[in-house]
C-alpha cells in the first residue's frame, strides 16, 4: 500500500528540511511544489514564466496550473510507493483535487503532520536560509550551517539566498499562509489525519517526532 504524507506548516516551519531528512529513509519521494516551480523558472518554461510574478510577490500560483503540475509529478512511476508532499496542497481547492486524484487510484492521504512554529520565529528562519541551487539542500547560517561557509556539503556548489526570502515578501507569504492555507488544518483534522509536531525544537528532535507521527 502506497503512503501519501502531506507536510503542513507555514513558510519557514522546516518542511523542506525535514522532507530531505526523512523521505528516502521512509521509502518516499519528496515532492516540493516550490522546488518544481523553481525548476521551471530556471528552465524558463511557460509555467516558470507564469509562476514568477506570483512567487516574487509571495502570492500563490493559481490553483489550476499548480494542481496540474503536482498531479503530473505524483503520477510518475517513481512515486508508486508513496510521496512526501511539501508545500502542496496550500488551498482547499488543491486539497480536494489531491483527495480526488488519490481516490481515483484507490488511495488517500494517510497522515498530515503539522509543523507548528509561531510567526515571530519564521522571519529569523527565512532571513538566515541558504539553499543549494543545484541539489536544493537547505541550510541556515546559525541553526544549520554548512561545513564550509557558503558551500553545499553535498556537492560544493555556492549557496544562494532565495529572492522571496526578503522581509517584505516573507511577511506577505505568512499572511497568505494564514488566509489561504491554515484552513487546511481543520480540513485534515476533520478527516482524522492531522498530527501536530512542535517545530520550534532543534532539527533532529523535530525529525524524531515526525517519524513517530508517520508510524
Ligand atoms: P519550509 O520548507 O517549511 O519553508 P525550510 O525547511 O526551508 O522551511 O526551513 C527554513 C529555515 O529554517 C532553513 O534555513 C532551515 O535550515 C531552518 N530550520 C528548519 N528547521 C529548523 C529547526 N527545527 N530549528 C532551527 N532552524 C530550522
Ligand atoms: P515554497 O518553496 O514552498 O516556499 O514555495 C515558494 C513559492 O512557490 C510560493 O510562495 C508560491 O508562490 C509558489 N508555490 C509553491 N507551492 C504552491 C502551491 N501549492 N500553490 C500555489 N503556489 C505555490
Topology overview:
Elements lengths: L2 E5 L7 H8 L6 E4 H10 L3 H12 L5 H12 L7 E5 L5 H13 L7 E5 L2 H9 L1 E3 L6 E3 L26 H15 L1 H8 L3 E5 L4 H12 L1
Parallel strand pairs: 1-3, 2-3, 4-7
Antiparallel strand pairs: 5-6
Helix pairs in contact: 1-9, 2-3, 4-5, 6-7
The structure holds adenosine-5'-diphosphate and adenosine monophosphate.
Structure, described:
- The chain has about 220 residues and is an alpha/beta fold.
- The protein has 9 helices and 7 strands.
- The protein has helices at about 15-20, 35-40, 45-55, 65-75, 90-105, 120-125, 165-180, 185-190, 205-215; strands at about 5, 30, 80-85, 110-115, 130, 140, 195-200.
- The strands form 3 sheets. A 3-stranded parallel sheet has the order 1-3-2, with helices on both faces. It has a two-stranded parallel ribbon with strand order 4-7. Strands 5-6 form a two-stranded antiparallel ribbon.
- A hairpin with a 6-residue loop joins strand 5 (about 130) and strand 6.
- Helix 2 crosses helix 3 (about 45-55).
- The chain binds adenosine-5'-diphosphate (ADP) and adenosine monophosphate (AMP).
- Adenosine-5'-diphosphate binds near residues 13, 201, 203 and 206.
Would you tell me the structural class of the helices and strands?
alpha/beta
Number of helices: 9
For the CA atoms, what is the radius of gyration?
16 Å
- Cα(first) to Cα(last) distance is 14 Å
Question: Strand-residue fraction?
Answer: 5-15%
What is the multimeric organization of the chains shown? single chain
**What percent of the residues sit in helical stretches (DSSP H or I)?**
40-55%
Read across the widest sheet, the strand sequence of neighbours is 1-3-2
> Which stretches are low in confidence, meaning pLDDT under 50 for 5 or more residues running?
none
Q: Ligands bound here?
A: adenosine-5'-diphosphate, adenosine monophosphate
Order of helices and strands: EHEHHHEHEHEEHHEH
Shape: globular
Q: Mean pLDDT, nearest integer? A: 96
Instruction: Report the sheet with the most strands, covering strand number, pairing sense and barrel closure.
Output: 3 strands, parallel
Amino acid at each position: 500500500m502506497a503512503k501519501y504524507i502531506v507536510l503542513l506548516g507555514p513558510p519557514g516551519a522546516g518542511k523542506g528540511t525535514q522532507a530531505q531528512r526523512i523521505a528516502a529513509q521512509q521509502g518516499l519521494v519528496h515532492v516540493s511544489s516550490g522546488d518544481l516551480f523553481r525548476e521551471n523558472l530556471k528552465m524558463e518554461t511557460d509555467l516558470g514564466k507564469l509562476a514568477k510574478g506570483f512567487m516574487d510577490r509571495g502570492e500563490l500560483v493559481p490553483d489550476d496550473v499548480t494542481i496540474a503540475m503536482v498531479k503530473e509529478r505524483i503520477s510518475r512511476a517513481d512515486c508508486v510507493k508513496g510521496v512526501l508532499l511539501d508545500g502542496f496542497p496550500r488551498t482547499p481547492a488543491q486539497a480536494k483535487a489531491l483527495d480526488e486524484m488519490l481516490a481515483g487510484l484507490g488511495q488517500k492521504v494517510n497522515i498530515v503532520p503539522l509543523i507548528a512554529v509561531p510567526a515571530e520565529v519564521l522571519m529569523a528562519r527565512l532571513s538566515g536560509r541558504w539553499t543549494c541551487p543545484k541539489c536544493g539542500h537547505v541550510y541556515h547560517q546559525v541553526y544549520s550551517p554548512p561545513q564550509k561557509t557558503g558551500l553545499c556539503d553535498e556537492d560544493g556548489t555556492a549557496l544562494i539566498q532565495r529572492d522571496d526570502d526578503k522581509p517584505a515578501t516573507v511577511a506577505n507569504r505568512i499572511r497568505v499562509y494564514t488566509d489561504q492555507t491554515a484552513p487546511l488544518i481543520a480540513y485534515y483534522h476533520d478527516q482524522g489525519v492531522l498530527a501536530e509536531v512542535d517545530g520550534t525544537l532543534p532539527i533532529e528532535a523535530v525529525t524524531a517526532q515526525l517519524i513517530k507521527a508517520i508510524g
